Each structure stands twice: as C-alpha cells, then as structure tokens.
Amino acid sequence: ETGVTQTPRHLVMGMTNKKSLKCEQHLGHNAMYWYKQSAKKPLELMFVYNFKEQTENNSVPSRFSPECPNSSHLFLHLHTLQPEDSALYLCASSQDPRGVGTDTQYFGPGTRLTVL
Amino acid sequence: DAKTTQPPSMDCAEGRAANLPCNHSTISGNEYVYWYRQIHSQGPQYIIHGLKNNETNEMASLIITEDRKSSTLILPHATLRDTAVYYCIVRVVTGTASKLTFGTGTRLQVTL
C-alpha cells in the first residue's frame, strides 16, 4: 500500500460514454499527477496539479478533463474517447515538485481502461 | 526525453545479487537519480534515490559513480517477487514543477 488509491481498478466504456476516474491520496501531499501507460510504451505524464492548481498539461486532448477539488483528490473525466485511449491510467502524489531537493512520487495501482 | 540509458533486459538467479546499471551522462549537479520498479500491470513502486553519495535502504542499494554519470541499483538477494521492470530516472526540476520522465527500463527476470 502506497497511500494512493484509485477507483475503479478496471473500466470498460463505449466511445459515447462519459466516465470519471478517481484518485485519493492519504499522504498529506500537495501535488498530484495523472500518467498514461499504453501497451508496451513508457509512462507518459498527462497533468500535474500543485496546491490544487494545474501546473502542467502535456498536450493532452480535451476529451480528457482533469479536476482537483483539493490536495487529496484528483479526478480524470473522460468523454468521447477513442479505442486508442485504452491504457493503464496511473495517479501519483508528491510533497512539492517545485523544490530542487528530493520530491518522491508515490503511485496508485492504476485504472485499466478499455474503450470499445 | 529520457536522460538515462538502461539495458533492455537482465536475468538473475534467485538468491544472488542483481546489479542493474544505468547511464546518465548529461546529469546536472542538482538532479537526483531515482529508481522505481513496476511489476506487471501495477503502479510503479519507489525504490531509492540519491544525489552523489551511495544510499541503502531496506529494499536496495544505490551506487553512484564519482562523476555521477552512471549508477547501479543493487538488489542484494533477489527473489522471484523482484521480477519487474526497473526504471532509472533523473528528476528534472523546471520553474514550477519537477518531472519524472520514464524510459523503457530494464526488465529483470529472476529465475530459480
């Protein structure tokens, strides 16, 4: 257990559906991240939130819409996805990514998304 | 872009030490080396990190060369549960955030 939970663990959706992924961290961290891991590809950073403010959007299509209501919760709202969006979506948190010292990210177990 | 180079795969016999190398020849003076591992279809697990001194924790040891251009992760007594993809990452700090850029890692297979 890393202190970062994600729900659901598995999700199957059609291209016209709207769904949301949820992430919660119990570590008292201030920053949260969404990553995408497609089959046989490295993890790709999607979004970064620091103190509830979005500080990074890595050219992610608008069909992915993040929301960070507080430092402990992060959502990823999904709509009109494509089959190529099928992947493992990972959430992570860290104390403060702005520092030049150490800032360790802790990952959740991921949500395995399949778009039909 | 990833700033590290790792062999794509390695094998290790159970009970033996696993030594995973990583090259990071362009690392800057204030950038840390992080190691994570990912067991199949799970989230990456933090292992260890270091700046310039060797580090050890309950999971592994990290040996960083004096010029900081390479490092080695050591699992002292590998078990079957250590079979995973191991990522060596240089943490880059930008103005507002730091990034962990994952490469393709080293797939470690521990065998009986």
Describe the protein in words.
The complex is a heterodimer of chains A (116) and B (112). Chain A is an all-beta fold and 116 residues long. Chain A has strands at 4-7, 10-13, 18-25, 31-37, 44-50, 53-57, 64-70, 73-79, 87-94, 106-107, 111-115. In chain A, strands 2, 4, 5, 6, 9, 10 and 11 form a seven-stranded mixed beta sheet that branches. Chain A has a four-stranded antiparallel beta sheet with strand order 1-3-8-7, with no helix packed on it. In chain A, a hairpin with a 2-residue loop joins strand 7 and strand 8 (73-79). Chain A is globular, with a radius of gyration of 14 Å. With 112 residues, chain B is mainly β. Chain B is built from no helices and ten strands. The mean pLDDT of chain B is 91. The interface between A and B is medium-sized, with 28 and 24 residues.
- Name the shape of chain B in a single word: globular
Helix content of chain A: under 10%
Q: List segments of chain A where confidence is low: pLDDT < 50 over at least 5 consecutive residues.
A: none
The total count of strands of chain B amounts to 10
Helix content of chain B: under 10%
Q: The biggest beta sheet of chain A, please?
A: 7 strands, mixed
- Gyration radius of chain B (Cα, Å) is 14 Å
Multimeric state:
heterodimer
Question: Which pair of protein chains has the largest interface, and what are the residue counts?
Answer: A-B, 28 and 24 residues
Average pLDDT of chain A, rounded to a whole number, is 92
Number of helices of chain A: 0
Sequence-ordered SSE layout with sheet pairings:
The complex is a heterodimer of chains A (116) and B (112).
Chain A: E1 4-7, E2 10-13, E3 18-25, E4 31-37, E5 44-50, E6 53-57, E7 64-70, E8 73-79, E9 87-94, E10 106-107, E11 111-115
Parallel strand pairs in A: 2-11
Antiparallel strand pairs in A: 1-3, 3-8, 4-5, 4-9, 5-6, 7-8, 9-10, 9-11
Chain B: E1 9-13, E2 18-23, E3 32-38, E4 45-50, E5 55-56, E6 61-64, E7 70-75, E8 84-93, E9 98-100, E10 106-111
Parallel strand pairs in B: 1-10
Antiparallel strand pairs in B: 2-7, 3-4, 3-8, 5-6, 6-7, 8-9, 8-10
